[in-house]
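Bit of a strange request maybe. I'm writing a small parser for structure token strings and I need a real example to test against, not something I typed by hand. Could someone generate the tokens for this chain?
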Amino acid sequence: MWKTVVEKFPPAYFTLVMATGIISLAAHGLHIQWVAEGFFYLNLVLYPLFVLLLLGRVLFFFSGFKAELASHEKGANFLALVAATCLVGSQLVLLRGNQTAGRVLWALAAVCWVVLLYAFLLSVTLRPEKPPLETGLNGSWLLLVVSTQSLAVLGGASFQAVRLISRRPRSPWPCSGPAWCPPCRYRPMLACSSSWAYFCWAACSTWC
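Reply from user aminoacidic:
Good idea to test on real output. This should exercise your parser:
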């Protein structure tokens, strides 16, 4: 039984971790802490379980893993691992203030993103026989965008963007304060928990 479960484990199951993390963070933002904490602990069970199942599939059933990763229809589903890893990292940063764990999971997600994304794109591009567009391109390809975005969000929460906004040693804002910057219309404190914080700092420093 377990051999079949591991051999056929679908990477799309990581979307359950993604959805659970999104609800948890949304509840945290709305100050519904019991929901945020409950879904956080649920992810602490689901995420390592799914990772172990996927590792088992890679180690013991590599040929099936390789074939699915090279598939137009199912290959993009593996990028759900990247987004799920980043969601768990974001939960650890926002709910527990654990920047170190967030950075470790960001690094893990970044490695998975590089390996899985380029392996998938090279496989579907170089294979001699390709399916028609209406069957080869489906909604799972949006995970290319979602996984990349999740890396940006967790990176912004764990690394330089937070420090640029929270410390502000000399206040790089020519228009410092809560008001909007008239020339570029960017607000300095916009989205300090995401990569937009660094973008706003750079934009205001350049164009103000």
